[in-house]
Amino acid sequence: MAWVLLLSPAAAAADHGGTSHSDGSIGVIVDYGSRVGKEEKVAMELAIDDFYKKTNQRLVLHSRDSQGDPLRARLSAMDLIEKQQVQAIVGLHTWEEVSLVAEVGGQARIPILSLADSTPKWATDRWPFLVQASPSRYLQMNAVAAIVGSWQWRWITVIYEDTDSAATDIIPCLVDALKQVGSEIGYLLALPPFTVNSSSPLSGELEGLKGRQSRVFVLHSSLSMAAHLFETANELGMMEEGYVWIITDRTTNLIHSMNSATISSMQGILGVRSYFSQSGPRFQGFYLRFREKFHSLYPKEDNHEPGIFALQAYDAVWSVALAMETAPSSKKGLIQPFLERIAISDFHGLNSRIQFNRRSLAPQRIFQIINVIGKSYRELGFWFEGSGFSKTTNEKSTYSRQLQVLGQVLWPGGPWSVPRGWSLPTSQKPLRIGVPQHGTFKQFVNVTYDGSHYSVTGFSIEVFNATLEHLKYHLTYELIPYSGNFDSLVEQVHLKEFDAVVGDISIISKRWEHADFTHPYSEPGLVMIVPVETESRPWLFIKPFTKAMWVLTGVITIYSGCVVWLIERNHTSAFEGSILSQTATLLCMSFTTLFSLHGEKLHSNLSRLSMVVWLFVALVITQSYTANLSTLLTVQQLKPSVKSLKDNNFVVGCSFRSFIPKYLEEVLGIDPKNMKDIRSFEEYPQAFRRGEIAATFMESLYAEVFLAQYCKGFVTVGPTFRVGGLGFVFPKGSTILPDISEAVVKLYEKGEIMYLRNKLVHSQKCLEVEAEDDHSISPDSLWVLFLATGATSTVSLAIYVAGQMQHFQDFMLENIGIWRLISAAMRSWMHHHAQRTQFSGGDLKRTSSLVELGTYRGSHGNV
Predict the structure, then answer these.
(1) Cβ atoms 617, 789 nearer than 8 A
(2) Is residue 147 a contact partner of residue 177, using CB atoms and an 8 Å limit?
(3) How many C-beta atoms lie closer than 10 Å to residue 169's C-beta?
(4) HSE on the CB side for 136, CA within 13 Å?
(5) For residues 158 and 418, what is the distance between their CA atoms, to the nearest angstrom?
(6) Most buried residue, 120, 129, 138, 555, by CB count within 10 Å?
(7) Residue (of 395, 426, 48, 376) closest to 215 by Cα position
(8) DSSP label of 69
């Protein structure tokens, strides 16, 4: 369908065969069936009429209906150029139409003025006859991001109509803008372009979005698609409390044309709309004439007010008309100057100042923020590029980066309270979080496996869980053990094997190359631990020997003394006297043997043998005691330092899985040969006791836990080296990281970190392992000597006892008669005593006994 419009009376006369002629012809390609096409067509006709009234020049509009089909638009352009010989073409609402028609215009050297809302910046470079007559609206994505950032919603779901311009330009702009406010697109839903006969299964697509966590949706689509989508969203309950909907100007620029039924389905949404001033007599005159003409042409439309598309079409036609005012009308050789005249246009249009830069208008920099309420909408205020939100547009306006300055917002479902922007997901994929499987300190991350699944516990996990409780959204995750070292674990985030890493990960510069760290949940610091005690040691003299050694020495000393006493008691006058006196002499002789020899006082060779062996053992014991005590006194006076470690080539213990070995080598200058790898928490005190290491280096929190469990014998010495600190790891540029860091800071402020830290430290049971026992001499070192002296004394005692037993047997044989007489007397007395109590005839018994006794005496003589 082709329409030829002669807007001025003179032009109309010429069209009907009068003698007057037109001064120029302009081609128009719009979609007659769309609201945008209707507004643009009416506005262009008014522009031609106003231009004739002002300049008395007659211009003709040749209009074609594209019906929203890019191919049809291309054919229409070819028809206008070849048959109507138009000097310029104005219109084209989509980028797809622009790209095809610009190619035709370039070949015919005809200027093409595009009214598409999104044209790539490179388009005018590719097609030299293309003029972008509508301002770019990419900056509106900064306004959308500012709305999102005002309430710190982190994950956004974007729904867009899948056109080339949206996918290649609008979405990337939104991604960049969201990054500036610390948010990101969690999910992208592309919908096929909407048509009248479209039966897109929106219910299935939207149902899938309900299962995800984000409840903040940004919609960038045509008006028809938006109306269809919100109708479906209402049916699915996605316009209820807790949801947030933000729509771009592709929809809001036409919100004035919606009927009450459609707009009521959009209750509570926020919209970004291109701003244009509606003040001034020129606009008011245009406004009245537009309403009248639009109503006469399209009486079925519910609203007859002009929008931004009408104003842009009006100004575009004026740009062409002003360029035609002095340009030749039919000399093709002068077409290039005509294009230049369009490009240098500079006048005040209905919408804004019309001034091209490289054949493109300046981007739209002011947008209006609206809130749909009931069957209409409320204008909250404005957003200015580079300034922020403001309630007015005058020079005295005040600006804010927070939309709250514009007043209260009504959200979907009717509440005035701000939605949190997320809900517990039912289908969202959890974050894959790596944890160290073989850490040195199991108190921080402890991974166990029960045969079916891994269980991860520890201080770091408790801190992470406490951190998540302070987030403004729910974070689902799964912990995955990783067996490599810490540097490799952090690198897995960069390689996208993990979405984050949680554990006792030290914050060092090398790891920043691969990932970002949260605020540390433990203060940085590297300290040195050594097995040294305070200088006040009144009982140091007992430390050369262990308790067992002291007891064994005392027992063997007393035992040896008892053997000598028993052998020498009949030959030495010193051993005579009361029991107390002999005991004192025995003990004195036993212990003075440690310092002097009593060989000249001993009479028995057995006692001399025992004493010689014991004297040798005593000599070894006293010398060992003296040497060990000297060592302890010397060690106690040492002032451990990094310098003394290096000067004496002492071995230092540390975990080779951490950053510490490299720090000790590169910063403190300790030779790697003097480092020992400690793989577990329990190996540290064992290495100290065995003398394998002289010191160890740990981070401050590790040291605090270590000293809490091994509470005696170890101390931190020297300065604290400000390095390290524990943090959680996230990918570079992660939008979650600022929230996690903020939550960690809140843990500090609320004292939760201190509570968890105290819980960790106090849960360590003090094992009371003293590192100085490494220097104490135990019986294990001298058991052979103790066995020798004990055996010698025992053999001497056995020989002595055997000799005494022989003397006893001889004595008993020599006096056997006496013993028999005593035995008979005792039997007689006991028998007589028993009989006297039973009957009187006991005398006979007693006489018989006496006769027997006399007979015995007669045979043996008097005793």
Answers:
(1) yes
(2) no
(3) 19
(4) 24
(5) 20
(6) 129
(7) 426
(8) -
Round to whole Å and give the CA distance between 790 and 784.
10
Task: Give the separation between CA 533 and CA 633, rounded to whole angstroms.
Answer: 11
Identify the pLDDT of residue 7: 42
Q: Which residues does residue 102 pair with via DSSP β-bridges, in sequence order? A: none
Indicate the pLDDT class of residue 353, thresholds 50, 70 and 90: confident
Report the C-alpha gap between 283 and 351 in whole angstroms.
9
pLDDT of 636 higher than 60: no
Longest dimension (CA), the chain: 196
pLDDT value at position 461? Answer: 94
Rounded CA gap, 818 and 634, in Å? 72
Of 392, 370, 372, 384, the C-alpha closest to 142 is 384
Tokens 């020899």 sit on residue: 597
Give the C-alpha separation, 750 to 151, whole Å. Answer: 23
Q: Give which of 29, 23, 22, 24 is closest to 44, Cα–Cα.
A: 29
Give pLDDT, residue 697.
92
Q: Which residue has the tokens 């060092």?
A: 508
Mean of pLDDT values over 719-733: 89
Alpha helices in 151-272 (DSSP H): 164-165, 171-180, 202-210, 223-235, 249-252, 260-264
More confident residue, 227 or 8: 227
At 527-539, the pLDDT tens digits run: 998 886 545 566 6
CA distance 99 to 112: 10
The count of other CB atoms within 10 Å of the CB of residue 211 is 11
Cβ proximity of 308 and 453 under 8 Å: no
φ/ψ bin of 373: left (φ > 0), alpha (ψ from -120 to 50), beta (otherwise): beta
Q: What is the pLDDT of residue 332?
A: 45
For the residues 210-215, what does the mean pLDDT come to?
84
**Is residue 46 classed as helix, strand or coil in its secondary structure?**
helix
- Count of Cβ atoms closer than 10 Å to residue 540 Cβ: 15
Q: Is the dihedral of CA 199, 203, 208, 209 positive or negative?
A: positive
What is the pTM assigned to this prediction? 0.64
Residues 598 and 614: beta-carbon distance below 8 Å: no
The answer to whether the CB of 661 falls within 8 A of the CB of 679 is no
Pick the more confident residue, 297 or 765.
297
Q: In whole angstroms, what is the distance from residue 689 CA to residue 692 CA?
A: 8
Strand partners, 29: 64, 91
Q: Which of 729, 711, 721 is nearest to 654 (CA)?
A: 721
Coil, strand or helix: which one is 112?
strand
Angle, helix 779-814 to helix 816-836, in steps of 10 degrees: 80
d(CA 150, CA 739): 14
Neighbours of 641 (CB within 10 A): 15
407 vs 607 pLDDT, higher one: 407
Mean pLDDT of 592-599: 52
In whole angstroms, what is the distance from residue 831 CA to residue 842 CA? 10
Distance CA 619, CA 225 (A): 104
In degrees and rounded to multiples of 5, residue 513 shows phi and psi of -65, -25
Work out the burial of residue 185: count CB atoms within 10 Å of its CB; fewer than 13 is exposed, 13-18 middle, 19 or more buried. middle
672 in Cβ contact with 583 (< 8 Å)? no
Q: Rg of the chain over CA atoms, in angstroms?
A: 53
Gap between the Cα atoms of 581 and 590, Å rounded: 14
Report the distance separating Cα 472 and Cα 833, nearest Å: 107
| Kind of pairing between the strands at 155-161 and 526-530 | unpaired
What's the CA gap between 237 and 204, in Å, rounded? 13
Quote the CA–CA distance of 341 and 523 in Å, as a whole number: 67
